[in-house]
Amino acid sequence: MKRWLALGVIMLMSIVVVAYETNASNRNFFLPDPLGGIKIVIDAGHGGQDGGASKGEVIEKEITLAIAQHVEKQLKKKGATVVMTRTKDGDVIDEHASSEKFGTLRERKKQDIFLRKDIVEKEKPDIFITIHANAIPETKWRGAQVFYHQEGHAESEFLAKSIQDSIRTNLKNTDREAMSIKQIYLLKKAEVPAALVETGFISNDEERALLIDKKYQEKMGDAIVEGIEEYLLAKIE
């Protein structure tokens, strides 16, 4: 009996050693998920017939979706629950209310925004982030900038500044500061900390080239995630 007990102990120790060596390089094997228990809604701006800003063949809706999907992936790795307003090329109506019909594109875009708001209200996340890209007639302007609504949730300013600081520190290609804005309906109506990330200017030749580059999209997404994490850590402290 003692012999079998000894063999059992040896086998158990062997399994523990193998598990340790397999996972020792992964700090998450020992530590809880840093964003465990956090729910975040990520909104890729525009979609479908509404391409957003564009320059030649470069279209905002494709950039926002690529960055949003990377943000989703990285947030999930950190343990967060992530809800995407859209995961495909189509708009949010295509994905969540495909049977709805509209007489004009303007009406569809309006209802699409309302549906994004409804998703945030239904999911009751801890944070809401909407991702966009900018374009204006003057080609000289560049730089990612994060916005919050001055009449929105009280912590939206802190969230926006945290993401802006992360973008500025990690990408090192903008001196812009987070700014309050009045016009964004989604930011005003969100009952949770909310921020809009303008990831750069499609109208600027250099920045447009960056925004369509996969590695840069990932760097931008990583900076957004780090900003979110820093915001949450600061709240705990």
Automatic annotation (TrEMBL):
Enzyme Commission code(s) on record: 3.5.1.28
Molecular function as annotated in GO: N-acetylmuramoyl-L-alanine amidase activity
Keyword list, A-Z: Hydrolase
Pfam families: Amidase_3
Enzyme category, top tier: hydrolase
Domain MurNAc-LAA: 117-229
InterPro entries documented for this protein: MurNAc-LAA_cat (IPR002508), N-acetylmuramoyl_amidase_3 (IPR050695)
Protein name as annotated: N-acetylmuramoyl-L-alanine amidase
Organism of this sequence: Lysinibacillus zambalensis
